[in-house]
Amino acid sequence: MKSIIxxxxxxxxxxxxxxxxxxxxxxxxxxxxxxxxxAAEGGLHPKHRLMKYHTFFxxxxxxxxxxxxxxxxxxxxxxxxxxxxxxxxxxxxLSGVNVEKARKALTDFPKVEIINNxxxxxxxxxxxxxxxxxxxxxxxDTRVRLLQHLSKTFNPGKLLLRVPMFEREWLVxxxxxxxxxxxxxxxHYIEYTEAEFRDEIAAAGLDIKxxxxxxxxxxxxxxxxx
Length: 226
Hints:
Elements: H1 2-9, H2 12-40, H3 47-50, H4 54-59, E1 67-70, H5 76-85, E2 89-93, H6 96-105, E3 112-116, E4 130-134, H7 143-154, E5 158-164, H8 171-178, H9 194-203, E6 206-214, E7 217-224
Parallel strand pairs: 1-2, 1-4, 2-3, 4-5
Antiparallel strand pairs: 5-7, 6-7
């Protein structure tokens, strides 16, 4: 009986339907797993400690650097950066809930200001040494224009970027092929191939000085073209 059921399930037509169902379940379970894992750890996603992605950003700032962190979320990354720079910094965040969390997380850093605003409307400080977009760029549909705006408005010496990769595992293109949601977040306008990322940076008139690939993401140090 077992072998008969197995034979039926692995018939190509049936297996195709089962595969599609499992792919949908995989997408939903991934999203819920992240939410519950964050709750289990007191509100901070375990990726912060497991991926150690803060290290890239902290390693690329220096004491005295002024920093603009766009989409700063709960302030966890900005806190680590502020501990090193000991200089004025601004975190921009759209979510009111996250703004309150970030302000609480950065209570001990009086030089850091958390602002509940849209980056297109922010008209505070006119210059920053460093602009950070950590898993933020992909949420914009006008990414080249955004990068140009940041470069022109805030005149940073460099931008530190972290974006998700499309080619992080085989399931991503496979889900897309099946017509199933394949993005890590359905508010992403893009999840990049390396070529797409390089093309957008070049189109914005910027230059990639260093790029790292890890955990299915690209980390890049980007500077204005001289």
